[in-house]
Each structure stands twice: as C-alpha cells, then as structure tokens.
Design goal:
Elements (H helix, E strand, L loop, with lengths): L2 E2 L6 E2 L17 E2 L2 H4 L6
Antiparallel strand pairs: 1-2, 1-3
The structure holds zinc ion.
Zinc ion binds next to loops.
Length: 43
C-alpha cells in the first residue's frame, strides 16, 4: 500500500523503519485511497 504526504502531495511507496516523506521530510503520512489518487501528481 502506498502512502501520500499531505504536505507536498508526493506518493511514498516505501520508507525506512518509520514513516517519513522522502521528499520533504514530513513524518505524517496518509494512506492512499482510490478517490484521492487522481488529485496526486505522479512521476
Ligand atoms: Zn512530503
């Protein structure tokens, strides 16, 4: 399951021992939901 950083909107598919955004360092991530996927820019 992928997670989304609510701060920068990036999708994080994997991370280290603790959840952290690898782009901006935000430690609060939300679980990706199908309804939200369209609003998230993907690479
Ligand atoms: Zn982020």
């Amino acid at each position: 399951m992928a997670y989304i950083c609510p701060k920068c909107g990036k999708k994080i598919k994997q991370f280290d021992n603790y959840a952290r955004c690898t782009y901006c360092g935000n430690r609060i991530l939300i679980k990706e939901r199908p309804n939200l996927a369209k609003d998230v820019p993907t690479d």
